[in-house]
Task: structure prediction
Amino acid sequence: MPDFWKSAGMHLLAPDSNGWLGLTPDFVRAYLTRPEVHPIETSCAAEVALHDALMADPLRKIKPGELEALADADAVDNYRVVLGFRDQLAAAGTIEGAYLRLMRQGNITVPPVFVDQMVHLICRNMLKDASDPIRVRVAELLFRDQTVSTDEGRLMLADQEIVEMHARTATESGIAQLLAETGTPMKAVSLDVLDEDNKQMYWPRSDRFDTVVDMRFGQPALDALARVLETWLAHMLRLDVRIEPRARIDDTDWRWHIGLDSEASALLNTLYEGRSVPSADMERIVALFRMHIAEDRLVVDRVKGRPVYLALAMTPDHIVKMKPQNLLLNLPLHPGA
Result:
């Protein structure tokens, strides 16, 4: 199978008997090389000694007063964050297990970037046998924010960080100022749009996150996202579901819904309560899905035999910020199912 997302670091982990990613010393070492905790020329002897000891044994316990001996207060804070994350991973034993624990406890104590990196790894693992580049590309939505363009009636999603980087590069190079002086409008960032004909281009550039997908109803990307969400639930909860894209919700007996981000949650709640939603807000819905849970015995009584509706929406400034944990935490399942 084509390799992809080498930057996720899955090669540093060891799959367990359930197919989840088991923690290894090498994975922790990768975090110890981050600039926030790697010693610099002005680091004190205690900081250098601590780093050397951790690199030799990344899972070693920190002795009382060991962090406080560091001269740099910022270094102390950074070590607390990284080592706290390490300890949560070690307690769970796997990336997937640690992610579920973090999400279920509600009070997330690790930086958002670490959470995104966990989802990146989980998606890389659950899609390890994927052969469709479009499916892999839309899985990026689970851990990377997207910028939405609706020009010419299309619904194009591009990586927000990459779009901003292109725009910043153009500004820093003086192109923007030159175009302004000559009265020439600056062109929008131009990235390659994946389709059925050119999608194989994705594999060698997967770590660049620089391709665009069209999420309109009926397009392959929307169906691919449905398959990704099915795989997410199967991998994380061993839950068998069927998800299908929908153009609208026509259901007089609507029982349950899940917003895949905060914007969609608010919109679905308003619709469910029978209140009107301004057309401008309705246009911010990027995707609608209908989900059926295969094992009815797992479902709470009021939702048995009924579909669960899912939605993804963009912010007023056209950014999609998916929260994949919503799909894990808000299912209509019996406690302990």
Remarks:
- Confidence is low (pLDDT under 50) at residues 184-189.
- Residues 6-126 form one domain.
- The two ends are 34 Å apart (CA to CA).
